[in-house]
Amino acid sequence: MAAKPKKSTTANPSRDARLASEKRLARAEKACQSLMAAFTELENAGVLDAHDTARQYLQMCRVHYRKIRNGKVLGPADFNAAVDVCTSARRALLALDPALSFASFPTAEALCTILQQADVVLGDYQQLKTGSAKP
Fold first, then answer.
1. Which end of the chain is least crowded, N or C, by CB within 10 Å?
2. Is the dihedral of CA 35, 40, 42, 47 positive or negative?
3. Alpha-carbon span 103 to 19, nearest angstrom
């Protein structure tokens, strides 16, 4: 019997790039869904009533979120819309609490979590923009 050829164990650059892209898109999708859920919860609780600027940024979040097809970040266009959602969300959070501590809010931990998720997406975007994307 002939020996089977061994599979190559070297890294496949195209596969690595595809996996990195899929992870980046998944992070962006999760962040956008978390952001929109948290802001909807805050709005329903009436927390945003006293913060007009935050409500305006929330409206921009919604506008950009509608650009994402079915709420799924599937490609570069959706990722760019997700970056816009995260940018508007970060501005809304800054309008709510300039120190970004959210101590006076009942959902302070959730707000800190979504801020971190938004920052990760914005960091991914910066890495893509500067050309130093990590695998």
1. N
2. positive
3. 38
